[in-house]
Amino acid sequence: MGERLRNWAGNIEFGAARVHRPSSVEQVQEVVAGAERVRALGTGHSFNAIADTPADLVSVAGLPADIRIDGDARTVSVAGGVRYGELARRLDAEGYALHNLGSLPHISVAGAVATGTHGSGVGLGNLATAISAVDIVSGGGELVSLRRGDADFDGAVVALGALGIVVRVALDIEPSYRVSQHVYERLPRAELDAHWKEIAAAGYSVSLFTGWHGDTVDQVWIKRRDEDAAAPAELFGAVPASGKRHPIAVMSPEHCTEQGGVPGPWHERLPHFKLEFTPSSGEELQTEYFVARADAVAAFAAVERVRDVVVPALQISEVRTIAADRLWLSPHYERDSVALHFTWVPNDDLVLRAVDALEEVLAPFAPRPHWGKVFRSAPGYPRGGDFAALAARLDPAGTFRNAFVERHVFAA
Ligand SMILES: Cc1cc2nc3c(=O)[nH]c(=O)nc-3n(C[C@H](O)[C@H](O)[C@H](O)COP(=O)(O)OP(=O)(O)OC[C@H]3O[C@@H](n4cnc5c(N)ncnc54)[C@H](O)[C@@H]3O)c2cc1C
Predict the structure, then answer these.
(1) CA 96, CA 77: separation in Å to the nearest integer?
(2) Ligand 1 mean position to 326 CA, how many Å?
(3) For residue 4, what pLDDT is reported?
(4) Partners of 184 in the beta sheet?
(5) Separation of 214 CA from ligand 1 center, angstroms?
(6) Which tens digits make up the pLDDT trace of 182-236?
(7) pTM over cut 0.85
(8) Cα–Cα distance between 203 and 354 in angstroms, integer?
(9) 44 pocket-lining for ligand 1 (C-beta < 6 Å)
(10) Could you tell me if 329 and 129 are in contact, meaning their C-beta atoms sit under 8 angstroms apart?
């Protein structure tokens, strides 16, 4: 059919022979039943070939959103292709909220949770931890429903698209809340080491932005709920920004959600970027490694040891925290994590040199890479064998396997 799709970053050209855009679950089932090899595509915001296939690619963006809120059960159910931005607006309008969001509202719910996408917050699990049920069109086109508490459920949420096409999910919700966002600048680097735990816990959600260039961390973004303690006048030597900031100093802060402590709806403060603007730099690659939160300070020092190869490839780094969970392939599986994120310039050579150096110096901390970003190698996961067995049961013909999952999951 000749349609050649690229991912959001433009670094991956999907090799799919056919791209399908079904408008009903029955059509998804027909495509899967007739396909030898098939993969789901979300909004294409991953930076590697995780979604790719040489055969059939299915986008579920055309399924009716069909957002159903159950206030008594505190859940919302929604078609998998719906973007967080759209879901969040509807929830807020009805007086409800999610526990957290990623840095951007542009991504699809099914695609985001498939890779363990996360925001920040010492007490907050990744976005997949809010999922309470999934409907998957699995091997042979069969519709499989799993809910929290089922034996296989913890393997079926962060599933990298390897169990089938997720057509519907249910998520936990809570009453709507307001958040205010304060940006502090020039956190003395030594204070970060001395007070890492307090800084990471200084708000509902905390992000640090740094260029790893020496004596200071560029920015600390603190997102507070109304009921949290008031924002401090100073944060361990970091001072409030005098105006609105973008994490990348040369970019326009217009793209960013409201700062300066102005309270607003949760979904207009938890993401860093507004739905109607380009998120992040727009011309970039990304990498992210997760290590145990207890190793954070040592991991910062390790990154600084390879600053010479990291900095030439870097636009900005972000440090966040994620609470441990029980999802088998989650990078945060049974580990309270700190995330070391790198927004790179779009230059493969520079990026891969930096990635190699980072994987070497972080090795003592058993780093787990973000499934949707640029990396070389992923470790075996404690429940990887159970995941392979689940995939063999739901998809005995291996319809949903691709080169990425063969290498990083089934051979790991
Ligand atoms: C600018 C930018 C900012 C980002 N910020 C963050 C961030 O703050 N935190 C973070 O953790 N990540 C972040 N990411 C990474 C992003 O969240 C992940 O790559 C996420 O998986 C993208 O979702 P998607 O819908 O685009 O999925 P895709 O990239 O399209 O697909 C990812 C995986 O999900 C599978 N999949 C997609 N849809 C389905 C479905 N319906 N059923 C089954 N499997 C499916 C695909 O097969 C593939 O394996 C960012 C990316 C960009 C480009």
Answers:
(1) 13
(2) 20
(3) 74
(4) 220, 240
(5) 32
(6) 999 999 999 999 999 999 999 999 999 999 988 999 999 999 999 888 889 999 9
(7) yes
(8) 31
(9) yes
(10) no
